[in-house]
Amino acid sequence: MNTHNRRPERLEIAGFEPFSACDWPGKLSAVVFLQGCPWSCGYCHNFDIIDPKKPGVIAWETVLEHLTNRRGLLDGIVFSGGEPTRQHALISAVREAKNLGFEIGLHTGGAYPNRMKELIEHLDWVGLDIKAPSAKYQAITGVARDNQLPMKTLRMLLDANIPVQVRTTLDPLVLDEEDILEIQQEVTELGVTDFVVQRVRPDGTNPEYAQALAEYRSRCADGKETILPHA
Questions:
Q1: pLDDT > 70: what percent of the chain?
Q2: pTM recorded for the entire structure
Q3: Which residues are paired to 167 by β-bridges?
Q4: Cis peptide before 81 (omega within 30 of 0)
Q5: By the 8 A CB rule, do 38 and 81 touch?
Q6: Domains assigned to the chain
Q7: What pairs with residue 58 in β-bridges?
Q8: Alpha-carbon torsion 148, 149, 153, 154, what sign?
Q9: Is the pLDDT reported for residue 229 higher than 70?
Q10: How many CB atoms lie within 10 A of CB 126?
């Protein structure tokens, strides 16, 4: 691989949130949203940054300057997306942020477990999306045929003792209660203790999906979106 592509200034950054209290449970963090994702989940509320060919709009140097000025005020930085592990420059940016004294959080769908290997030693927390039971992964992502890659990523994180929160977005157009319980059982048996079910947010989603969701909600006000995993 061309080492030039691994330099932190090569990051394609689609957005930057200088302060967040909700992207890393119990931590105050800055959040960097990286451009591009290999999947096309209809409910993705960052639909505008899925395109991997679209250039970034914020320089890493801008983020780094903010972090330097916020040492002692923020706990860490979260790399989100899109799919942040898609970009080869992520590891260099993580190292620079770590060297400034910040903890490192990551939001990922687990699409690139092999790239996770070099990241793991620098991570302090991961929010991992397990989007569906294996048989329904393509229905959610439009691309991935099963859950093999995200589950491999999960096992790697657990083996490395990285704190991980597994999240499933309850897409009522595809998933039902049995699906949620199946995911919960599968990840719990691996050792996950933090499993969260998230409700779909229509803002920022694919317009076609947003319309389909609105039609669904108009038909059943108290539908499948009220499902929560059993204790």
A1: 94
A2: 0.92
A3: 129, 196
A4: no
A5: no
A6: 3-226 (3.20.20.70)
A7: 13
A8: negative
A9: no
A10: 26
